[in-house]
Amino acid sequence: MIFNLIYAIRFPDWISDTAIPLPGPLSIKWYGLAYIVGIYLAFLWAARTVKKKEVWIPEGVTRGSELIPNKRLLEDFTFYCLLGIIVGGRLGYVLLYRPEFYFSSPVDIFKVWDGGMAFHGGFAGVCLAVWAISRKYKISLWRWADMAAIGAPLGLGLVRLANFANQELPGRVTDVPWAFKFWAGDNDQLPRHPSQLYEAFLEGLVIFLILWFLARKKKALTKPGICAGMFFLLYGLFRFGVEFVREPDSNPIIEGLTRGMTYSLPMVFIGLAIVWWAAKRPPVAPKHMPDDASPSAKTAKAK
């Protein structure tokens, strides 16, 4: 441990929380940029996926009865998700992690520039967006949920990298050779796990690759709900595991479990249930594909 106190990796001085400095008091932060770019990449990935006819049609089936989103509908969906992430993420942080502070000072709830977003709150906001858009366009809720799931890891990975750039949400004190000394804010400069990088790798890259393999190689999109269920399951497992080396955000609700563990564990069981239910259902094919999606959009809006 004494060795690591001396030789732990010092967080680079040239990395700041500002991505693009602007004249005057305004600037573009890594955190905000990660959200915007992540959501845009998720949209592009979903739009590209709906154009791949082969991933939507089961073997031996040529035409089904269900509608799938097209690019125009995905643009609408992306806006709904953006609102869900921002409002849900902020309210989730207020209610799940620091309710006493914000209830005593309600005006601070609106100071989003001071930081404070919770994944589980943003996740709930996206779930609400999925429900709302499915009712608006009369397209299966699970179709929309799968579309959100396959692109979500792109944004998650970028946000975790922004956490690292901001030197926030660091890991527990450790003597591993790759420990970092974070110096900004209230950090004590003790060697700590770079838990933000662990999460960027697991929640971002690994989940994205698994869902890519399921959707593109195993035709998981022909059984709506599998990709969404796998996202629930994998995120819950990975977040639960990383919590062992991540510094807890606040006092636990259940003794022996961090709040992140408490909020993530239900996702594991819900994800398992969704995957089991979706896998048992027969595969379905879309009624219209994006290359003939104009009738799909008209039908969706007419219902």
How would a crystallographer describe the biggest sheet? 3 strands, mixed
Helix percent band: 55-70%
Structural class: mainly alpha
Percent of residues in β-strands = under 5%
Shape: globular
Q: What's the count of strands?
A: 5
Please state how the strands of the largest beta sheet are arranged side by side: 1-4-5
Low-confidence stretches: 292-303
Q: Please tell me the total number of domains.
A: 1
Radius of gyration: 21 Å
What is the overall number of helices? Answer: 10
From the structure above, extract its key features:
303 residues, mainly alpha, three-stranded mixed sheet, two-stranded antiparallel sheet, 5 strands, 4% strand, disordered C terminus
Descriptive account of the structure:
With 303 residues, the chain is mainly alpha-helical. It has one domain. Helices cover 58% and strands 4% of the residues. The chain has 10 helices and 5 strands. The strands form 2 sheets. The chain has a 3-stranded mixed sheet with strand order 1-4-5. Helix 2 runs antiparallel to helix 3, helix 2 packs antiparallel against helix 6 and helix 5 runs antiparallel to helix 6. The chain is globular, with a radius of gyration of 21 Å. The C terminus is likely disordered.
